Each structure stands twice: as structure tokens, then as C-alpha cells.
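Exercise (ungraded).
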Amino acid sequence: MITKTSPEVGGMGHSLKRKEDLRFIQGRGNYVDDVHLPGMVHGQLVRSPYAHARLKSINTEKAKKLPGVLAVITGEDLAKANLAWMPTLFFDKQMVLATGKVLFQSQEVAFVVAEDRYTAADAAELVEVEYEELPVLVDPHKSLEPGAPVLREDREQKDNHIFHWEVGDRQATDKVFQNAAVTANVHAFFQRCHPAPLETCGCVADFNSATGRLTVHLTSQAPHAHRTLFAIVGGIPENNIRVISPDIGGGFGNKVPIYPGYVCAVVASLTLGRPVKWIETRSENLQSTGFARDYHMTAELAASREGKIQGLRVKTLADHGAFNAAAQPTKFPAGLFSICTGAYDYPTAFCEVDGVYTNKAPGGIAYRCSFRVTEAAYLIERAVDVLAQELKIDPAELRRKNFIPKAKFPYKSPLGWSYDSGDYESAMKLALEKVGYAELRKEQAEKRKKGELMGIGISSFVEIVGAGPSHTFDIAGIKMFDSCEIRIHPTGKGICRMGTKSQGQGHETTYAQIVAQELGIPAADITVEEGDTDTAPYGLGTYASRSTPVSGAATAMAARKIREKAKKIAAHLLECSADDLEWETGKFFVKGAPSKAKTIQEIAFAAYTNHPQGMEAGLEAVDYYDPPNLTFPFGTYICVVDIDTGTGEVKVRRFVAVDDCGNVINPMIVDGQIHGGLTEGLAIAFMQEIAYDENGNVQGGSFQDYLLPTAVETPHWETDKTCTPSPHHPLGAKGVGESPNVGSPAAFVNAVVDALAHLGVKHVDMPIAPWKVWSILKEKGVVS
Amino acid sequence: MALRIEKTVQVNQPIEKVWALLTDPRKVATCVPGAKITEQVDDKTYKGTISVKVGPAVSEYSGELQIVRIDPENFEIELLGKGQDVRGRGSASLKMTGKLRVVDGGRTEMTSVSEVNLVGIVAQMGARVVTEVSNVMFGQFTKNLQARLLQPEGAPDDPGAQVKPVKATDVAWEAGKRLFRRDS
């Protein structure tokens, strides 16, 4: 149990207003594009219009002659410095600027640097590139066909296959299916999505030839890891590189990889000796930077007639585009997709994934998702509904029958995970009550009689977040610990520096609340600073809902180290043994004599003015936290939809979200995270796809075609919580940022399919646009 | 992006006159907004350019037009064109079949089926924009063609003659009109 502090202290459980919002809502944030340095010049990328073409020639003469143009860099130029290619975060390499051929539309071909941004853009238009078109592969199934054109001529392996990965017991699973009374299957395509952060990617690279130091202001979710990669790839001593992530306007995984634009800006700054700014346009962001999903999945469930699940078999084709630029832990080519067994208790499962190349933008990154967990949760929650349909059992009842019982935690899943804690039935029960499930089913039956379409969709998802334990988790070799350094100043105020980096999550508030909880120093007195690699301790950054599980834990541990030292100082001040002291929020007191006490502020002052002989002065600590396990947040979401039979439009009538993320740091921020993630989930389910035509032209390359939900489309979200603390996290917290994005797509789709189930519909792929529903209604004879 | 565009128009001219014009790419080009024939390679092959403005993107395609089939008895013609944007921003290809027939005492009906394949920035605009642009272009083409047919026989061919490319505002206007029509 967490002791609740007073509102003045504002520890865990208080809905403190976000400290950072004051500057954000006043327009006084400091984003990369706000960085203006003396002598700064501007870069612009020239991009390929073709999805697959041989580069015959690049003529930069006209561009170079334009007044104000300082340099035009091509792939051949970079090749001389051995920088035409760079490693991706997942054992592949990626062209910085194209040499030989281009492999996707909007691929980076040349980099123009000019005195101002307009001149750079004009000059980019003057770069003449001659291409010879080559056959294009957009369908990953076709990439694997014999005789398919080999996209990656740079590889020794002369086909388009990247990896095969499997987990589980294939033979045992096959056997379960052979003997199963009932099987159900679903082919679900989780379409290519894009995180589309409101701030696009960009940087200002500033090489100072006098000091030999390179400072890069970068939209980076992982500034420390990026510094190390710049050092390794660029050959610059790491102490001479400073990466600064200023305020970031949303990341959602999109700002984890290193992009060619960053490298070009660094090369240009090294060459010209001037700061070079490069900022993406919206279309560049959507068309060339890290996409997510693009998984072609098949799931089969084996079950008894009574509805007891006995096994799961999953086969998936993963489209990675032109380069495998996935950003995920090294040992997991399909991320943590093996969480696909879900919230259910059965002994046998097998899952295999094949990755392939196509002529599309490279990826895929984990969009508000702990590495392919969204795909996994969507798949199992869809499959369970299909099984329910097959067995004619209510989907809530089928879930209840199969939930991992509360008593079975920690639970070892058939694909190898150890779920830390869970109480799935309580979360579903609360959601069912809140939504009024029984009445809704009655209403649905009545509406069906009248020919009206209404559906109820349930998703009881399990997340796996907080990567991760160093024995299993690393990115590009760097273990996935994270860090916190706390310094308490003489007057009892303090600063926390972190290895993570907020992109809107509210870290400046929540980490301060953890310190407040542990030390009793008001959260208002704690400054949180992140993103400057010169000052912050090393860490792997913020993505995969890892800030609270890993850095949040590091903050608690560092604060506890401070408390230990504070105890010794208090003993010195109170002239007693440390063993005689007891802690109560904000002060140590002598056991049995509560008036003999020293506050943490008094102790902090003493740490600099009157510390015991033989003890180091000061009150600070650093902690590098290596989590013993991941955390497993969960919840049940229920969506109610009505479908307009005239237009095929789906209207979300209600959406109840019951989340369990263990102990909560700031309930208001958690609610905000859930609202945001559900809204993104809604967009994925109904509006968004980065589609390609048969020639590899991007069909979702601007906000004209890749739609963002506004207040008009967004329904009212009804949220609630259950609380099942993590047994291994020092604060019992689990992380929540991704749950709503992971759990909601299945709820939306299950609701739509439920509305159409009596017509024989088993599955509808996202995005469920009105035309898609209308076509089904037409096919089923509902509309003429 | 592949588009199939079917158009039918009627012109108040005898079929022979329309046919004579339609089978001469140099004359046709003077009616196509933004198009220009620059060179005749042989009796069936021509080189030329066409400038198309879609939203902010101006594509200037340079390429070849070939008469693949010509059937004077049935008044049918089949054309194949392909070009690349001169600044390397994409390519376009066109397969067009045109057919003429006499209607209502002396009038000529012209039916064309075009299969257009676009690659590059223009193709990203999506079918609804590109279709709108082609509608505007075809509308102007028909107008120009009518005007051209009214010119006296033997009017000097101006090989340098070129009709201005379609403006974005025209496209927006057309799209707007359609939008209102749909609502009413």
C-alpha cells in the first residue's frame, strides 16, 4: 500500500496539474524548430518520386548556382566518407542518401544546404535526377514468390526474406489442433499506420571547429543512445558529442530511430563549420519516417465444445519496407509479439513471424506500443470473438471461462513470459457493470428485429511493458536499464535528472511526485530535467511505456538512497542512533518521542552545513535501475456502436475503459494518457492507413488522406480503474501510456463485427471506413 | 496510380473533318492544355511535352506518343504515350482508344477510353484530385477542339502553338461545383 501524502507534498495519487503545461499553453515551449543559432543555415532533402528505380545520374550544377546555396550533398559524396549507408537499430543497414538505386517513394536522394529555408527548397527543385524505373513490390506476399525482383542487391542473401522467427512448441500445438473439438481462425491485417506526431522530426547540428564539439539539438526519444550511435557511426569521440532533446511535440515511437536527415545535417555542419537546421515537412514525416504495424496475421484457436481454449497457432508476415528499421530489443525480431496468448489460460501455443522487404518506407517502429504488443492484443482479442461466434457463446462469458485466474500469478505463459500480476475478471466485471452489458444485449436483440444495426465489442487486453531486464533486453547492444540522479540543494529543494525523455507524458510532474512520495519534499520543489546528454545520467529513453516501470523505479531507488543518508544525518543532528529513528513523510523522528524530529529540509541544510565528521557532504544519489521483470498492465474496454445502414457510417455510442496499471502516480495524467491513446486507437480503427498503390505511390502521404481525429469524431470516453500493483516494481506501478492504443482497436472492430455478426460477418479489416461497411451491407442484401 | 477515364462528347462537325484532325497528333496537341509536339520521329511516332499542374506540383512530362493502331473504316484510333517529368519527379503513361461515330444528322460523337498510369508526386494527390484535373483538362480540350474545327480549312498549323496548362484555381472551382451539386 502506498501512504498518501498531503496535497501540499503532492506524492503519488494526487492529480497535480502538469508543471510543463504552463509554458506549453503560453506558447513558450522550446522545440527544435525554435532553436536559432548565429550563422545557422538550412537543409532540404531531395526525395525520390519512384518506389523502385535505378539512379542513372544526379546533376547538381543548376542547384549549386542558385544564389544562397552552400552545398549539395549526394550519396556518392557520402560514400567517399563511408557514410552512404548507416546501420538501423535492427541488424540491417539503410541508405542515408541513395546510391545505385532507390527503394521507396520519398527516399532521400540528395541534401541541399542554403542560407535560408526557402532557397534550400527552391534549390532542391533544381537538382536533376535521372531514373530508370524498376518493377515495384508492394505486396509482401509477392516479395516471397520465386522470381520476385530482388530489392536489396547489397545483401549476400539474394531474396526478399529478412528473418524467420518462431516461439513455442510447434508439434505440441499441431497435436492440440488435430484433436480439438472446435477450431476458429481469423486472418487479420493490421494496416500500416503512422504515429504522426504533431511536431515532425528535425534537428540542428552544430559543429564547432574551435572546440571540436558537435552539439545536436534533436527530436529524440532516446538522446543518450543516439549520442552513442553518432559516436560509433560517425567516428566522433563520444565526449565531443552533446545531444540535446528540447521539448518534443509527441513521439509515439516515431522519434526513436536515426533518420537520414539527421546524418546529412551533421555531415553538412562538419563540412561547412556552421549550424545546419533540418526540419521535416508533414508529408516527409508521413512518407519516409518510421511507420508501425503492417502485419498480415493469422490466428487459430483450438477449444472444447464448452469453450475452454486449448491452444493458439499464429502465423504472420511482417512488411518492413525497404530496410528493416525496426526499433526494438535485439533478441526480438518481432518485438514482444509473443504476448499474443493474451489474458487466457491454456498450455500450448506456437507463433511464427517472417519479415520481408517491399518497396515501401522502412520500419516498423513501436507506435505507442511496447514492440508489436498492439498487433498481438488485437489478434488474440479478435480471435476470441471469432471463437465465441463459432461456439455461439457470449464473448464476455467465453473470456470469463478462460481468464488466467488471479491465484495463478505470477503466471508462466506458454510462449515464455512470466506475467507479474493480474485480476482480469475484476476488470471485466467492472466494465460490464459500467456499460450495462445485459441491457445492451437486450436492446441489440430488439434492434435486430427492426433491422437496425448495433454492436458491442469487448477487448480484455494484456500489455507487456517496461523493457527491460538486462539479461534479455538490449537495443543495439546497450542494456535496457534506465536511470535517475537526484540532487537535494541546501534549502531542501532539488533537481532530478533522468535517462528518459518526455514527449508530452508529463515527466516533469510525475517524477517530482515520486520524489515527493519518497522524501516528503513537495513535488513543486523538485525540478525534473531530461534530454541533455551532458548533464543527465545515461538511459535508453522513453518509449514502450518504460518511463514509469524503469526510470520511475530508478527515481524511487535514488530517493531511498538519499533517505538512507538523510537518516544518518538526522541521527547526528538528534544525537541518537540511526536505528532509533523512524520515517514519516518528510521527517525522521525518534521512536516514542515524535517531537524529537528533523524534517528533510533541515537535514538537507545540514548535509551542506553541519554534516557528520567522516561523511561526504551533500545529499545526492544516482540509480541505474535494472528491472527484474517486465510489468503487465491490463484492462477491459467495451465499445458500443450503431451503424447507419444508409451510409455505412459507424457511430461509437459509448466506450468504457477500465484500466489496471497498478499503483497510479498522477490519476489526471493517467486519464489524459488513456483519452489520448483511445483517440489514436479510434483513428487506427476507422480512419488511418498508409496505403500504397501498385506502383508504390504513397496514398496516405498527407493529412488530406491520412486523417487525424478531431473533437468532432471523438466520442466521450468513460474511464475507470482497478488496481493490481506490480509485485516487483518499487512503487507497485506498471506503466499506462500505451494500454489504450494497444487495447482499443480490438474493442472497436469487435463492436462493428458484432453488429454485423447475424449477417454472417466474421471479420472486417481496419480502417473501417463507411464505404467498407456499406459494401458489406450491400453484399449481404441489407441495402440495395 | 492507375486511372481509367471514359469520356463522350459530341461536336457539331462532320465525322471526316473530326477524324482528320484527331489522327494528326500535331493538331491534337494544340488543343490539349499544356501540350506541345516538339518532333516527329516517323509517321507514327512523335516527341513532345506536356505540363500538368496539380495543386502545388507542376509536372512537366517529356516523352513519346505513338499511334499504335489506326482504323479509318471504323474511325478508331489507339495511342500510346509515355513520359518522364523533366525534373525527375515522376512518370506518366497513357493508353487511349478513341472512336468516332455519326449521330443526329451530321454531328459526330467522340468516345475515348484512357488508361493513365501515374508515378510520383502527382500520384500522391489521390484519384479524386487527379480525376478532377483530368476532367478540367478534358473540358478545355473539347472547347479547344471545337474552336479548332471551326477554323477554315488550310489554316496555318503553328507547330509552336501551345495552350496554357490548366490552373489550380480551375480545378478547385470544378471540385467546388461538384461538392455543391452533391449536397443539393
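Further reading is listed at the end of the chapter. For now, observe: The interface with chain B takes residues 49-51, 105, 125-126, 128-131, 133, 283, 693-699, 701-702, 704-705 of chain A (CB under 8 Å). The longest helix of chain A spans residues 547-574.
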